[in-house]
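Example complex used in Figure S2.
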Amino acid sequence: MHERAPAERPMIRMKNVSKVYRTEHVETHALSSFTVDIGAAEFVAIMGPSGSGKTTFLNIAGLLDTFDQGSYWLDGQDVSRLSDRQMSRLRNEKIGFIFQSFNLIPDLDVFDNVDVPLRYRGLPGKHRRELIEEALAVVGLTARLRHYPAQLSGGQQQRVAVARALVGRPRLMLADEPTGNLDSAMANEIMDLLERINGAGTTVVMVTHDPELAARAPRQIHVLDGHLLDLAAEVPAPLFRPGAPTPEPAFGG
Amino acid sequence: MELGPVFRALVYNRARFWLITVEVALTLAIVVNCVNLTFDLRHKVLRPSGIDEPNIVVVTLEPFTHAYEDATYLHAARARDLEMLRHFPGVRAATAISAIPLSDGGSSSGRKAEGAKGDTLGTPYFDVSDGAIAALGVKLIAGRDFQPGEYHDYHDAEGEEHDRPAIVTQKLADAFYPAGNALGKRVTDGDNKTTDVIVGIIATMHNSWPQSQSVEGRVMLLPGEPEDKRYLQYLVRTQPGARKAVLAGVDDALLKVDSGRIVTHKTLEEIKRGTYGGELSLMKILSSVVVLLVLVTAFGIVGLTSFSVSQRRRQIGTRRALGATRQDILRYFLLENWLVTGSGLAFGLGLTWALNYALMKVSEGPKLDWPLLAGGMLLLWVSGLLAALAPALRATRVAPVVATRTV
Amino acid sequence: MLAYHLRIAVKSLRRTPVLSALLVAGIALGIAVSTAFVAAYHTVSRDPIPAKSRHLFYVSLDSWDKERPFDDDQPKEPPDQNTYRDAVALLGSKLPTRQTAMYKAELTVFPEKREERPFRARTRVTFGDFFPLFDAPFQYGGGWGKEADQRPQAVVVLDRDTNDKLFGGVNSIGRRVRIEDREFTVSGVLAPWYPKPKFYDPHNGAFEQAEQIYIPFRFTEPMRLLRARTGNLSNWKSFNWDVDAEFFASEAVWIQYWVQLDTPKQKEAYTSWLAGYAGEQKKLGRFERPINNKLRDVREWLRYKEVVPRSSRTMLLISLLFLVVSSVNLIGILLGKFLARSPEVGMRRALGASRRHVFLQHLIECELVGVLGGIVGVGLSLIVLRGIDNLRRLGEQGPPLYQAELPMLAIGILLALAAGLVAGLYPAWRICRIPPAAHLKAQ
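Predicted assembly (1103 residues):
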């Protein structure tokens, strides 16, 4: 089934991945021959103008969408031929998502929202409760267990979403413009959270428009017209790079 | 698996929850009561009458010549008709009878056990010529049939009738003599001007008024020709399968005997249908209402579930992103539907009882048959699930990418 | 503004054609079923002769057995028909404006053409007053007068079908027809007439059609019509049925008696006249029960005879509940539809639409569904009504009992409007409370 993984497995390894959206008249190459490696415990910011393919990249990386050509190993596992059920399982166990518009389930309160991924994992109730409380403690929302999303501010909602992404202890955290709907104070809060999560060993891949926030990530990848521009690898003097250089992964692309 | 959150999400959407609940509850109440009524009517119409209904033809002759006003002529004419009928191909037995069972028209008279105190019992009776037991297809279970010499007029000089033999149903016999020793005993009218001797007992037979509960199953057969000179009525029992052939030829054959009369015929089944016309049409109307109502409710559930699916596309995508499989999504919507329908059915229990009570008050409807309620609940529960299935399946096709779309 | 609301509503409905069709179909079904059963109920429960129902009275005298009431279930009630001797005696009063004694019979009618077979006709044996009393409409000619009643003249009134059958539908006034063994002269032909309920004789089928032929009452004795009577008869005192004279003098009740009393004074006078008659009879040894004369006007009479079938009441209740279910259904789907449109509404609100506008806008959309459903439903109700009528008569021929009448159709439309309003209030209220900003933020 899966290809042999290299000794030091990257979290994400894509090789020549292409994705084409077809309508009756137009073909849009959302990604063309996209190749990238993202190592375990990295914090990567994905940047690029709208429509450049960064969300497509994130969707494919998060197994939300399929691709047409190329190969993708997630945590060393070839995922190009997985069934819907297997992908669901992988998403549930390995990946945490944070969305721009939070995507909290409006009918459920905070506790039940954070509970969602655990339910699909079929954990016993007591264990779930421990995990949920722990995750909510991380984001500092233990006092609002029974609030509904509509009763929370945007920042609070996104913190619930972070807790929900966190609760299943994923190896990979994917964030799609997590601060896009927030003011800068709240955005910073969320960034702090992501950094803490990364600090605990979770790979974080974040799509963002905001160069300032992107600059907080040790590595930035630019996507342009479905192609990759890895600033860390190819652009020597990045405008947005902070001082600390990121160790390049050893395996070549 | 996730009853708690599903339920809490439902309650959070009060309006949707209550609407389906109310609709299901009302539907249950109406459906169960309609079906209850229908079954009650069906039972009334279909219960066995003790008579060989499918093979009996009723022939009515209305003479317009004055000759029939003469008793001797009438007697001879009847004998000729019966002779012809009995030899008609396909006919098994024939008798002249004063009224037609199940026809809603007949005669009844008061009788009580000889020497008994108190009121007489309403006793529907039939004057019959020979061959009545065979022509009706009823079962003689005790005593004997009438003997050839017993078919005559029993009026004496004072206009009283005494010791006329009678064959009664078991039910009537027991009503007169509860000890079960009716055979050979007499029954009389209120002022002792008429007495009959019970010579035979038949198992069961319905009288002319099958809808009347007060005289249900009471029949007294009396030997002697019907007195009415305006009508000659014959009950003709055919061989199984020969009814159609008999009907096709019997009118002409009777006119050949004497053309001075109007002949009409009906099958006993037609007559019964006429008597039960109200019940039969009500049964059909109620059944149609049940079908329509279940359809309307199912449409409602389809509509509401569709909306809840299309409104929650992003939520579904998010769940999928968070690791829900398609089955998880399907299960979620079916579970939700199950909960709503379930609560509707729970409220429906009370409402069903209330409507039954109202119907009993307003129109003396039947009491609720509780097993039927269980059936109704099952029907609605299954219909509800089926109605939710299509939208729920559509929900499983929502792609996980929906979660990251910004529109 | 109304036109604008209406245009938006039409657009909104056309945007989701399948759903709109379902909405309309759902409410149409509810309207069809409820309108049909309301109409059916109206047919059986209405006042059949509103202009005169307060002036026509059915006469009952208590001539029954002193040992037992006529009806064990209603022991205070006199018998529901009269004896022949009492009916003849009642005719002696000159107080009522009009009056008739009558009963139902079946007589053999011989067509003029020899080759056609004779047939039995449903017959009403009555007085000339019958026709003006009950407003029977004539196509040709008319009834008969007092002289024809007194020393009975052989005159007959035919209904239209019988006139068609006997005379091919031509004006047959003065033509002769043999009934039993006597030649009768046609004095009139009725226009189609189907009083519902058949209030003048509900004993013998409250929804049966009117009789086919009408002949003078006084032929009862000379033509020995006793043998031909077919209506209900009840008796408590035995007599020799074979002797006509005994029959006429018996206590058997089988005659219906109606009087027209136009003023309260007239009614008062007649009431005391009846009391006098009953008193006289008491002296003669009859009327052994307490004197219990009853004069009931048409409505009281129909109520007493429980003319409205129970099944009609059952179906009325059930069909109205059906409409409730359809309305709840409508509420649910409209609510879903409206809420799905929240962002658009939020935008309209942001662009300056007031709550009132939004509320009205959506209410009008609901009413539009209601009206469409009402039109389709009323159309369907005609089919339902015909279906009910076909079921009722089990394939037998004859004019329909249940017929659509304009007021009923109007009621159908009104029901639909009410259903649209009731069903629309909550969803429209919910949607108009959407805050303008809520759905403008990117989501």
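The radius of gyration of chain B is 32 Å. The first helix of chain B runs from residue 3 to 12.
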